[in-house]
Amino acid sequence: MKKVLLFSLAVSLLGCKAQQPRDISEANPMEYASTITAKELKDHLYIFASDEFEGRETGEPGQKMAADYLKKEYQSLNIASPLGGDDYFQEVPGSYFTRGTVNDTENVLAFIKGSSKPEEVLVISSHYDHVGIDDEGRIYNGADDDGSGTVAVLEIAEAFKKAQEDGFGPERSILFLNVTGEEKGLVGSKFYSENPVFPLANTVANLNIDMIGRIGTDMESAGDYVYLIGSDKLSTELHEISEAVNEKYLNINLDYTYNDENDPNRFYYRSDHYNFAKHDIPIIFYFNGVHEDYHRHTDTPDKIEYDLLEKRAKLVFLTAWEIANRDTRPYVDKPTLTEAGE
Question: CA-CA distance, 240 to 231, in Å (whole number)?
Fold first, then answer.
C-alpha cells in the first residue's frame, strides 16, 4: 500500500509540474493551430446548423438550444465563464430590441485568464443566431452565416486551452464571445459594448468571424483566400501584425476589396466588430463574401469548404496568439473618438 501511495504521489506531482506556467517564447503556436481540424469543424457544424436548431432565430427555442450547445462545449473543454460558476449567459432582454417583438435572449461567454497581463482582454467573436423558419416552413440553417464562424471560435478556444494545459497560457486574457441578435441589427454585440464584462478600455482588440466557410461570388479562382476588413482602420500596427502572422505561417491570400472606404456594401459597419470599433478598439473582420445561398434556406452544412474553413480558423488563432502574447497591445494611431465625445 505504501508503494502505491508513493507512486500515486509521484504521478500527482508530475501532473502538477506539467501544469506549471512555461516561457511562452518556447511554445510553437503551429502545434496548437494543428488541433483545429476540418473534421472537428464539420462535426460541430452538422449539429449546429441542423434542422433541430430551427434556424437559431433570436429568442426562439432553436437559438436557446444553440446557446446550450455552446455552453456545454465550453464546459467540456474546461473553459470557465467570466460570469462565474455555471452561468455562461449574458442576458439580453427583449425590451432592448428596437425591431419588432423579440423574446429575451443571451450572449454566450467563455474566458481564459491571462498569465501576466490578465487585466488586458482580447475578444474573439462570432454571432450564433440566424433567421429561423419562413412562412413556408423552410428552415434557414445558417451553416455559413454564421455557423462557420461560431464553430471556428469553439475550435480556437480549444486550441488556446490545450496550450494552457501544456503550461503556455496566454499572457493576456481571452474572451470568447458568441453574440445573439446580429441578424436583428448587431444587438447582442451592442448590448455587450454597453454592458461590458471587462472594461472596454482594457479590451485590446476584437477579432470577429462572420462567414468563413464558403467561396464567395466570383472568387472561385482565388485559391485559399479570406477577405479582411477593418484591420488598418484604427491601428496600423494591428494590420502589420496580421500581415506578418499570415506571411510566417499560412500565406493565405488576404483580400482587402471590402476594406475600401468607398465600398458600397459597407461591410465594415454590418457585423459585430463595429460595436467595438466605434469605441476605438482595433478590429479585424474575417469574411468569405456573399454567395448564392446567403440568407437563403439553402445555406446548409454540406456546402461548406471544410479544408478552407480550417485554414481561415487557423489564421484567426495564430493572429490571436500573437496579439495575446506580444509585449504591448496594438497601438491605436487612428482614433475616431475625441476626448469630449467618448
Answer: 9
